[in-house]
Amino acid sequence: MSPKVLITGAAGYIGGSILADFLSHCDTLFKKENISAAVRSEKQAEAISKLGINVFQLDLSDESAVVESLLRHDISIVIQCTTCINPAPALNLITALGKRREANGGETYFVHTSGLSAFFASCGWPHGEIKDTDSVFDLEKEAADSFPVRQTDVAIIEHAQSREVTSFLVFPTLVYGRGKGEWNKLSVQLPAYVRASISDKVVHKFADNTRVSAIHISDLTAFYRQLVKKILRKETLPSGKEGYYFALAHDFNWLEALDQMAVSLKSRGLLDSSKTQIWPSDEVAGASLKFPAQYVQALWNSGAKAIAENKHKLGWVPAWDEKKFLESMDEEIQDVLEFGERKSSFNDSVANLAQSYPNQSSIES
């Protein structure tokens, strides 16, 4: 019997796009009847059920409910696309996979969507440049107490090891492009910037010309598809403490991207001038971008000195590069005009985190 795959956060931007990608590539490995989706609300379940797959509402903070659901649906592979800040959902899913392995035998796998912010200097990363083939787990554990994303990464790997569940951690960076999911089609950073610029009648930018990594959503879903195919084929891959995968496609300069955004907004008649201005303060930026001020630098003016090497073991080659990204800025604007606000709980998660970690810069993928 083919392993059954569960995608959590299937109503989100990344989770929904992964689900759509998997369904569009159903073959002898990806069978539609073996793909399930977990969501939070009844409305989300109704929307995604139209795809003709198994969809169920699940409170990932309820360990007993998670265990019961995964055992009932015989799930052996979980792709976790909810939070990378709170470890509880991931730990509950791993516990369930461990019980499934004990009950039915066979290997179980947990693929966690983390965030490259774990390696931002602005988020307390003390080790500078990092490769995903380095001893990343040991370095994260040393610095875990200062940042919740790192705490979650370490907790996942250790819990998976104790439950004999094979784990993989995927680290996307800035993700862009129209999502393919049924519920939320907008990413975080660029749509927020577009909305703020339209509201302010000007594109603001930070003084630093920060260069950061990025990945188009279609390249990211292909990354997950390649990883899961390797799992299904039982090919040997780095996992556990060695199972770090940086999903990086290309770099870009923020100032160049924002200059292009200003030109596109003006050409649509949404701005009077394509001239950009410097943010007067993080507080002003936070109010405009509708994010806590302590997070705006981490989201829009930070990057990691990260080198992705494990991606080559997947046979993954991105289709998008810096040139295509800059040329697509008008498409980002069109998506915001078409879809409006993001349909997700990301802003709520950040607001709650701001209360728990008032002096830290923490972000979620």
TrEMBL record:
Gene Ontology CC entries for this record: cytoplasm
Coiled-coil stretches: none
Saccharopine dehydrogenase NADP binding domain location: 5-94
Alphabetized GO MF terms: aldehyde dehydrogenase (NAD+) activity
Pfam families named among the record's database cross-references: Sacchrp_dh_NADP
Signal sequence, start to end: none
Record protein name field: NAD(P)-binding protein
Organism: Melanomma pulvis-pyrius CBS 109.77
